[in-house]
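quick q for whoever's on today - can somebody do inverse folding on this one?? i tried earlier but teh output was garbage lol. tokens:
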């Protein structure tokens, strides 16, 4: 029954994708974030035939002035990143991402709180992007904590877009792209303080949003295993299908949405080795660094330990287990279905976190099966 469900879902997704492409061809963004600390995976190692945009992760402004102070070592990294990727065959566009999951969100909250600090941040960000030859800027603020900060974010996007367009017109060159990494759902419905992203400002001022469709489950809850990037979840709204739907319902255009896909898995330690399904009781994190393993590490672990691999058709995800070790992740099968789902929904593309996590480009190349044209932004 599970195999039949999977085949049926894949047929529906592929058929819907073909229908969307035939009626209204959708440009495709095939993007990935490159961690600047990945010293063993330089930009030159990226196969640019598989991508259209690569994000440099990350840069942070000064926590007091909100301006960017680039050290000599960072300047070398930034210059090498853009020059290498612009001269690859084929070249890809480069976007400087600001913030990240490990950044202090209070810095952005204070910066966005008034016009003068927003202006200092915006002008400095544009200057840095132009200096090092980036094609765009991306904000990864994780996350605004209340309605006021969400409103401030809307003001920030509006003023940022205005400044980008003004400078581009003055200098007579194309405007920088402006994007933002955002939560999987438009609203934070599970949190004590309810808030929602400024949809109107996003619709008007951003080229697209990178919807982070992952980290639904993880080491913050070690009691049960989970699909951390579930496409569907019949028991809750914590899923990609719900999240994407919430953005569309709020009026954010489908063509301004890029779906996030993880090139990593999350791990748990099973309470009982014999009970190993999604939702099985666990007593802690499993293998990997703080319960996280790249897809490449997962594949090596499974092979070395002769782990049992299971495809879960309900959530459209994979998991493997051996002894008390349990890993939830995506592979080529689940990613192919998810990319097809995104295309069927009319989304403009997908992105991976992070590009260095793949194994022989097995997952990254799946998007080529769904791409009918390249993005021209």
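ok took a stab at it. sequence:
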């Amino acid at each position: 029954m599970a195999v039949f469900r999977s085949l049926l879902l894949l047929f529906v997704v592929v058929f819907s994708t073909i229908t969307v492409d035939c009626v209204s061809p959708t440009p495709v963004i095939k993007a990935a974030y490159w961690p600047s600390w990945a010293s063993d995976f330089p930009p030159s190692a990226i196969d640019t035939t598989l991508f259209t945009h690569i994000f440099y992760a990350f840069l942070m402004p000064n926590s007091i002035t909100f301006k960017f102070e680039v050290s000599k070592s960072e300047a070398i990294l930034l210059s090498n990143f853009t020059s290498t990727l612009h001269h690859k065959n084929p070249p890809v566009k480069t976007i400087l991402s600001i913030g990240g999951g490990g950044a202090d969100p209070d810095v952005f909250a204070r910066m966005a709180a008034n016009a003068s600090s927003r202006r200092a941040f915006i002008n400095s960000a544009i200057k840095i992007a132009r200096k090092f030859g980036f094609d765009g800027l991306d904000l990864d603020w994780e996350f605004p904590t209340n309605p006021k900060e969400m409103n401030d974010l809307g003001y920030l996007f509006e003023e940022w877009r205005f400044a980008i367009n003004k400078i581009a017109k003055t200098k007579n060159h194309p405007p920088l792209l402006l994007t933002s990494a955002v939560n999987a759902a438009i609203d934070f419905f599970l949190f004590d303080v309810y808030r929602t992203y400024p949809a109107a400002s996003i619709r008007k001022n951003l080229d697209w949003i990178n919807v982070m469709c992952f980290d639904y489950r993880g080491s913050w809850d070690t009691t049960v295993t989970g699909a951390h990037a579930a496409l569907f979840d019949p028991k809750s709204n914590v899923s990609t299908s719900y999240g994407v739907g919430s953005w569309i319902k709020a009026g954010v255009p489908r063509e301004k949405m890029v779906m996030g896909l993880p090139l990593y898995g999350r791990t748990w330690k099973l309470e009982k080795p014999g009970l190993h399904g999604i939702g099985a009781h666990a007593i802690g994190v499993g293998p990997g660094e703080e319960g996280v393993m790249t897809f490449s590490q997962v594949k090596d672990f499974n092979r070395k330990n002769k782990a049992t691999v299971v495809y879960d058709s309900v959530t459209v995800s994979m998991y493997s287990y051996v002894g008390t070790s349990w890993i939830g992740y995506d592979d080529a099968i689940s990613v192919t279905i998810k990319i097809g789902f995104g295309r069927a929904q009319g989304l403009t593309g997908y992105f991976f976190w992070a590009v260095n996590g793949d194994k022989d480009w097995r997952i990254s190349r799946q998007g080529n099966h769904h791409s009918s044209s390249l993005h021209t932004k």
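fwiw The longest strand covers residues 29-35. also Confidence is low (pLDDT under 50) at residues 1-8, 10-26, 371-376. so keep that in mind when u check it
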